[in-house]
Amino acid sequence: MYDPHPHTAEPEDLPAALRPALEHIAETVHDTWAAGRLAEGWRYGPQRDDAARTHPCLVPYAELPESEKLYDRRTAAQTIQCLLDLGYRLEKP
Q1: Distance between the two ends of the chain, CA-based, in angstroms?
Q2: Which residues share a beta bridge with 20?
Q3: In terms of pTM, does the model score above 0.90?
Q4: Is the Cβ–Cβ distance between 80 and 9 less than 8 Å?
Q5: CA dihedral of residues 68, 74, 80, 86 (deg, nearest 10)
Q6: How far apart are CA 72 and CA 25, in angstroms?
Q7: Exposure of 40 by Cβ count < 10 A (0-12 exposed, 13-18 middle, 19+ buried)?
Q8: pLDDT tens track of the chain, all 93 residues?
Q9: Cα–Cα dist 76/11, whole Å
């Protein structure tokens, strides 16, 4: 049985210098997910309906409810933390 062990970083756990990039990465995470869904034939709908392939989150990131933005922020934070754990240094040019 699959037992995932993701990095458990929360957005507020990141170093302060990396937090400004977090929202941009979270938006990219959402856009990547949405592009994949749209390519699979999904469209916006007020409720998720797998049979009709509609989803309420197929909107621009800025229009998402905060709960969905937090999901994307956590994914972004965990990705950043993974890079840091692997020894990468992230510096703004």
Answers
A1: 43
A2: none
A3: no
A4: yes
A5: -140
A6: 8
A7: exposed
A8: 998 887 777 888 888 888 889 999 999 999 999 999 999 999 999 999 999 999 999 999 999 999 999 999 999 999 999 999 899 998 887
A9: 8
**CA 89 to the chain's CA centroid:** 21
* Gap between the Cα atoms of 15 and 42, Å rounded: 37
Six token digits for residue 39 = 């390519």
CB-CB contact of 27 with 72 (8 Å): yes
CA distance 90 to 22: 12
Angle formed at CA 71 by CA 59 and CA 37, multiple of 5 degrees: 40
Domains of the chain and CATH, by start: 13-84 (1.10.490.160)
Where do the H-state alpha helices sit in 5-91? 19-39, 66-85
H-helix or E-strand containing 23?
A: helix 19-39
